[in-house]
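Sample entry (205 residues):
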Amino acid sequence: MQLDNDGSLHLCYCTNIHPGDNWAAVNANVRKFAPALRAQLAPSGKFGLGLRLSARDARELLEGDRLDEFRSFLDAEGLYVALINGFPYGPFHKTVVKADVYAPDWREEARVGYTLDLAEITLANFNGANFLKRIDGGAFEVTDESGAPTYGASGKILGSSLEGSNTDIADEFTKLIVTQQAYSANTRVVTTSNQMVQDVLNMLR
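Predicted structure, serialized as tokens:
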């Protein structure tokens, strides 16, 4: 979700509000409702979508040129995907949903493949990736230097892999040393102050 400069949140349209049992139905709902909602709620800015996709929807979206066509539609209409919802695996509008929301789970290839499909849909590259602004933890924000996100660029999702840490060890050790030195200096100040107070008290006696 995007934030304004004053920190206010944008409203979003979540596609799970309207039933859709395949990508064609979800796409039709987005095209029907999202532009009208943006015109009312964010006429001068971008409007976010909460894109809820079943495993079938995600797989169908990745077929052929559908993803590129969908992104072109979003750009033309001033829309963006604020978040993507991958629960449950199957249809959302069933009589019982919560009972099997995590079925199949990540021990099964079907769930792993579904998760990777969702990640591929949102995968993007930046010409100046090193100039992205760190917001918090692993979250980054686009800057003028990083450039706009490029979708459909080179990149891949690796399953059953462990991501290397993006922590700068040298920088963290430098911060640790600075903090330790500051603590030691403050400790000496407190000790000196206590000694001065004790000397004054001794003089008064």
